[in-house]
Amino acid sequence: MRKIELLAPAKNLETGIAAINSGADAVYIGPEKFSARAAAANSLDDIEKLIRHAHIYNAKVYATINTILYDSEVEQAEKLITDLYNRGIDAIIIQDMGILEMNLPPVHLHASTQTDNYDIERVKFLDKIGFPRIVLARELSLQQIKEIRKETKCELEFFIHGALCVSLSGRCYMSAAMGGRSANRGECAQPCRKSYTLTDANGEIISKSRYPLSLKDMNQTANLKDIIDAGIDSLKIEGRLKDIDYVKNITAHYRKALDDILEERSDITKASSGKVYFDFTPDIMKTFNRGYTEYFMNGRTGSITSPHTPKSLGKEIGRVAEIGSNWFRLKALEKINKRILKSSR
């Protein structure tokens, strides 16, 4: 029977354990070096603790060694991968193909989305040379995923939720060009989230102090069934820099949605053991989001950008119906609990 994996991010040990406890079948985490999120580095001891916790439930842990390596770092990276294997890691997510030439133990290597996995010929090549899993580009449509599935035998992983980059998956050099901080070294300064003033050829202002490169966040909740049927084996949540509350809420949301699908099907099953019971109701609008989009899943749709702010929009609780000199009246969409503030004087 085909197993469907829910894959969640882990900023650190605590977040990784929370992800597993919230229903993740697997988590991905960055070690101290060579991870594309330098600000989310973890010691080998912490990763081993996470592995032990995950394996209790037959869940898996993947380590991200997905930066481009300098020649002087090859030996360090080889040793790190070997150490991770000895600690029980289930797979290593890589970008640098030089890793294939290393003297490594028999650890699974997953081809990161940063290896430009949007072209069917490229994906077929990676499949042919032996990658057991390929992480597809976020920009793919449902039809493109189906075509890739027909031509490959390996497991396919696809992002279903989280931040989107305005550049083609994994190929942004804007941060390096503008500030010397390379995303391919785990140090992206996120220039796509900065404000810009656009002018035409004559210097006339088209848009002032807006965020034209900031995209909404991906949300494929409505497309989960179609994505699974298209041949995706692992449903990936983005967010190794997100806090523990975000990871718990988003993981729980997709666990519940995925379980509803699994209950109706006899051809697919959960990738890990056990059942999760929640003491809260997941709500993806209440954690960080810039507004949501399904991106290119069903072709190009309406606006996919969030030009007014790169920050979280939160959940809409109502619309302002009337404004006074020192008051306003809200037409509420959600229940509002009144809070009375008393002066300390």
List keywords for this structure.
alpha/beta; 25% helix; 8 helices; 345 residues; TIM Barrel; 8-stranded parallel β-barrel
Structure write-up:
With 345 residues, the protein is an alpha/beta fold. An 8-stranded parallel β-barrel has the order 1-2-4-5-6-7-8-12, surrounded by 5 helices. A two-stranded antiparallel ribbon has the order 9-10. A two-stranded antiparallel sheet has the order 15-16. The N and C termini lie far apart (68 Å). The chain has 8 helices and 16 strands. 39% of the residues are buried.
The strand line-up of the biggest sheet is 1-2-4-5-6-7-8-12
Terminal Cα separation, in Å?
A: 68 Å
Counting DSSP E segments of at least 2 residues, the number of strands comes to: 16
Helix content estimate: 10-25%
Number of domain units: 1
**Overall pLDDT confidence:** 93
CATH topology, which one? TIM Barrel
The helix-and-strand class reads alpha/beta
Task: Please write the CATH class name.
Answer: Alpha Beta
Alpha carbon gyration radius: 22 Å
CATH superfamily: Aldolase class I
Looking at the overall shape, the CATH architecture is Alpha-Beta Barrel
Shape: globular
